[in-house]
Automatic annotation (TrEMBL):
Entry-linked PANTHER family: ALPHA-1,2-MANNOSIDASE FAMILY PROTEIN (AFU_ORTHOLOGUE AFUA_5G10520) (PTHR12143:SF27), PEPTIDE N-GLYCANASE PNGASE -RELATED (PTHR12143)
InterPro entries, alphabetized: 6-hairpin_glycosidase_sf, GH-type_carb-bd, GH92_a_mannosidase_put, GH92_N, Glyco_hydro_92, PNGase
Species of origin: Periconia digitata
Name of this chain's protein: Glycoside hydrolase family 92 protein
Family matches, as Pfam families: Glyco_hydro_92 (PF07971), Glyco_hydro_92N (PF17678)
Length: 794
């Protein structure tokens, strides 16, 4: 579909000096827009497609409705073929669960008479015709009613341009519009309250909307808006009507139209406005909309200052400049004639999707006064802690520090750091309290800056010591078990995956304690071995050849393992009530990054560890259906979801680095493509994308440790700007289509015999990593494998 439109842009790539290099032609904003079922988003990236700046509050794009409810996935607003229900200012990118946002909308119409009913989008929703067009900072589509829509935006404002086909020119504003949950699940969003008023000249309108719910079951949040048209409409009226989500009998009443100002209170009405141009010769109507979490005045100021002209090209240029300067230019590879265009597109598109979230809401926190930065849409850290945050630490250190300060400030004012957070409210925690891992990762890599580490450690300690009593909102809901037994008992949900995550969380605490509270380091280190309590050395695999023995196994509080009908390759629904979350015990039994040494030992030593690893990459070994979290993947190893992200690299721990290269590269090539179905599952705020970037760099970070594993780069020359102003250069001599096995490595000019290195080696002052690659797989590493700093036995 949209491929052609995107590729034509490549021709106009300008490449003058390095400083001005424009990387935006290499971004395909549709990668992840589609899943394995053509035309549907289901099982795809759930990405946002539209106009946005890095970490933008505004992500301006179309909202759609998909016809087949069983596979409808509208989390990012955009779907390849869904009917357009509106164009809205706020979106998430890459999330699963119920949609969040899709608020502050407009919809261009060419008819407002019967059968149109503003309370029923099914009467005006639109098919699209032709091909959607998207590039960094802009989006355009054609509706069946003949209206051409093009969108551009800035950090807190968006510009919407409509070309109408004839005399009928209307724009509907629906304050009560949001992205619904197609199946009407428990985490659907709600519209709670709204108001809208039209100014004297009919050109501007202002108001607010209040919404709640979504995947994080979030508390109500309010968005103020300020809209303006470039041309005064001759007719401008508000409307209000019954909250139709309450209508049970199928008849949607008509709204009441008329008046300059309307508010939802006291009857809980839906509210909106309709603008009509009856005496305007121009076919084009433009609108700018600013939003704020603080006030209408701020929303208007954002609109006026961030989008000073009506010239779309200016806005696109400004957005691209920001993307190039703040994001793309941090990783520079050769973009000349001889470059592999597919690899360029995969690299820069991945960087793009990694930087749509979280949202920088500094100055826009309505909940408390603070000098700390404010960020939202950590959605979720469960996804991004594994390698996304480690890449941010290197290439966007200012943002990374700012985000960490915000996490700590949330703890200060609301009690807990989030694992997920959106709409100014924490939720949900799928497993552990993984902000702990993020803080520890930054701490061991030397981040100090303006981070208050006394409070940072206190925030982590709260997670580790004060139970949230069965809640999934924040903290650790099964901490009572953890403190009582040293593991999560089978009486609690997700007992195995939470034990695995709490173990790493406590290791994270021990890492920070070493500097901040040395007397507590050992206690948390000991607790980080809790996963070992759940390791039953006698549990066999089921329906596998060969049979592997020794797995994480459900255990009761009295210390007995429950092996009744236990098959580690299955996990029932693999969700909230299961023993493991979005992955099987078979997979989670590999996820102990802080103590791989014990893991290898428990699996029977290096040889059986290796054969178990080999097994999970074999086709048709999966025994469970992970639904949209593993669609089309038949191996136990599931690269479509986060828990297994580091697993392909575990061969480094037994000094068979070539196998890590082989497995990880094969996964990347099979599942990551320059195509709408180009990522193997929800991109999860860019988590899947950052996995690919690390793969292309030839490195993989071990979170909570200042350690990077070496794999094999996809480019022969990479310059990365790290630590603000230093350069890491990665070169690959001998790289070719079939020539990617490491023959040798030099770091800072020195022959390197280890398949890993430390942060200080090249990530602080910069440096060089020189790979020599070839077609032969060889065991080139002669020194010890990567460390297990959490090595301790219970
Ligand atoms: C909806 O999608 C499911 C899964 O692809 C399919 O089995 C079903 O036939 C579809 N229903 C309709 C009405 O198209
Ligand atoms: C469209 O209207 C239907 C029927 O009223 C409603 O269920 C759905 O949530 C609406 N969708 C959007 C995107 O507003
Ligand atoms: C109605 O809304 C307009 C535009 O926001 C505003 O200027 C005006 O003060 C409002 N009037 C009343 C009575 O609230
Ligand atoms: C503004 O809209 C109102 C209500 O539709 C209309 O009566 C009025 O004439 C419009 N004003 C202008 C300047 O067109
Ligand atoms: C049925 O729909 C009408 C509007 O058409 C509404 O007034 C009434 O309250 C609805 N009845 C129920 C039981 O929902
Ligand atoms: C609209 O109805 C939904 C569902 O019953 C409810 O959650 C929400 O609070 C209502 N909104 C208003 C403004 O009353
Ligand atoms: C990387 O930097 C070196 C040293 O400045 C330069 O010679 C080389 O051309 C750069 N390579 C790329 C791909 O930017
Ligand atoms: C680009 O690299 C990919 C592997 O990432 C390979 O499949 C493709 O053939 C290469 N394209 C060209 C034109 O060399
Ligand atoms: C976050 O937003 C604030 C306010 O717009 C801005 O000053 C700051 O530079 C931004 N931080 C980052 C890392 O983008
Ligand atoms: C959890 O339960 C304990 C004991 O009942 C109570 O003291 C504590 O406040 C509860 N914590 C939360 C976060 O609700
Ligand atoms: C043991 O596992 C089986 C199978 O999952 C389950 O039905 C049973 O309730 C479990 N026993 C206890 C004591 O939890
Ligand atoms: C990099 O930035 C730091 C902090 O601003 C500064 O102290 C240092 O001199 C800079 N180094 C280089 C090589 O520019």
């Amino acid at each position: 579909m949209n491929q052609l439109t995107f590729l034509t842009l490549l021709g106009i790539a300008i490449r003058p000096s390095e400083a001005q290099q424009d990387y935006t032609p290499f971004v395909n904003p549709f990668i992840g827009a589609e899943g394995p079922i053509p035309g549907y988003a289901y099982g795809g990236g759930d990405i946002f497609v539209g106009a946005a700046v890095p970490f933008g509050v505004v992500k301006l794009g179309i909202d759609t409705q998909e016809d087949n409810v069983t596979i409808a996935t509208i989390n990012g607003g955009y779907t390849p073929r869904g009917l357009v229900t509106g164009v809205s200012m706020m979106h998430e990118s890459g999330t699963g669960g119920c949609p969040k946002y899709g608020v502050i909308s407009q919809m261009p119409l060419t008819n407002v008479g019967a059968p149109i009913n503003f309370l029923d989008n099914t009467t005006y929703w639109q098919k699209r015709v032709g091909q959607d067009e998207a590039s960094v900072g802009s989006f355009a589509t054609d509706l069946e009613n003949g209206v051409h829509i093009s969108l551009t935006g800035s950090r807190h404002a968006g510009q919407l341009r409509y070309e109408f086909p004839g005399d009928q020119k209307h724009v509907l504003v629906d304050v009560s519009h949001f992205l619904p949950e197609p199946t009407g699940g428990f985490c659907t969003q709600h519209y709670l309250d709204g108001s809208i008023g039209i100014a004297e000249d009919n050109k501007t309108y202002t108001g607010h909307g209040t919404y709640a719910g979504g995947f994080n079951l979030g508390a109500p949040y309010t968005v103020y808006f300020c809209g303006e048209f470039d041309t005064a409409p001759q007719d401008a009226q508000t409307w209000h009507g019954l909250n139709t989500s309450r209508v049970a009998n199928g008849t949607t009443p008509q709204p009441t139209i008329g008046g300059r100002n309307v508010t939802a209170k006291p009857n809980g009405d839906r509210v909106g406005a309709i603008f009509s141009w009856t005496d305007v010769s121009s076919s084009t109507i433009q609108s700018k909309v600013g939003i704020s979490f603080i006030s209408i005045e701020k929303a208007c100021a954002f609109k006026d200052t961030e989008l000073p002209s009506w010239n779309e090209d200016d806005h696109v240029a400004a957005a691209r400049k920001e993307w190039n300067a703040d994001v793309f230019s941090k990783i520079r590879v050769d973009t000349g004639e001889s470059a592999n265009a597919t690899n360029l597109i995969l690299l820069y598109s991945s960087l793009y999707f990694m930087h749509l979230m979280p949202s920088n809401r500094t100055g826009e926190n309505p909940l408390w006064e603070s000098d700390e930065p404010s960020w939202d849409d950590f959605y979720c850290i469960w996804d991004t802690f594994r390698n996304t945050i480690s890449l941010s630490h290197l290439i966007t250190p200012e943002a990374s520090e700012s985000q960490i300060r915000s996490l700590i400030d949330i703890y200060r004012h609301q009690g807990y750091m989030p694992d997920g957070r959106s709409g100014n409210d924490n939720g949900l925690s799928q497993g552990g309290s993984n902000a702990d891992n993020w803080l520890a990762d930054a701490y061991v890599k030397g981040m100090r800056g303006d981070v208050n580490w006394v409070d940072g450690y206190a925030a982590m300690r709260k997670d580790a010591e004060v139970s949230t009593n069965g809640s999934n909102k924040e903290g650790r809901g099964a901490l009572d078990d953890w403190l009582t037994y040293g593991y999560v008992t089978e009486a609690s949900e997700r007992s195995i995956s939470r034990s695995v995550e709490y173990s790493l969380n406590d290791f994270a605490l021990s890492q920070v304690a070493k500097g901040e509270k040395p007397e507590e380091a050992e206690k948390y280190l000991n607790r980080s071995a809790g996963w070992q309590h759940l390791w039953n050395h006698d549990t066999p695999s089921v329906k596998t050849t060969p049979v592997f023995t020794g797995f994480l196994t459900p255990k009761s509080g009295d210390g007995t393992f429950n092996t009744t009908n236990y098959n580690p390759a299955t996990c029932d629904v693999c969700s909230w009530p299961s023993v493991t979350y979005e992955g099987t015990p078979f997979e989670y039994s590999f996820v102990i990054p802080h103590d791989v040494e014990t893991l290898i030992d428990f699996m029977g030593g290096q040889t059986s560890f290796e054969s178990r690893l080999d097994y999970i990459f074999q086709p048709n070994t999966s025994q469970t259906n992970l639904g949209a979290n593993g669609l089309g993947i038949t191996t136990i190893m599931n690269i479509g979801n986060e828990p297994d992200f580091a697993t392909p690299y575990l061969y480094n721990y037994i000094n068979k680095q070539w196998k890590s290269v082989n497995q990880s590269r094969a996964l990347a090539r099979q599942f990551f493509k320059n195509a709408p179905f180009g990522v193997p599952g929800n991109s999860d705020s860019g988590a899947l994308n950052s996995w690919l970037i690390w793969q292309m760099l030839g490195l993989y970070p071990i979170v909570t440790q200042p350690v990077y594993l070496l794999s094999s780069p996809w480019f022969s020359d990479i310059n990365m700007t790290i630590n603000g102003n230093r350069t890491l250069r990665i070169t690959a001599e001998g790289l070719g289509e079939d020539s990617y096995f490491v023959q040798g490595v030099k770091i800072n000019g020195k022959e390197w015999q280890k398949n890993w290195f430390l942060h200080d080696d090249v990530m602080v002052e910069g440096g060089t990593i020189e790979f020599t690659l070839g077609e032969e797989n060889v065991v080139w590493e002669t020194e010890d494998g990567p460390p297990s700093p959490g090595h301790v036995r219970v």
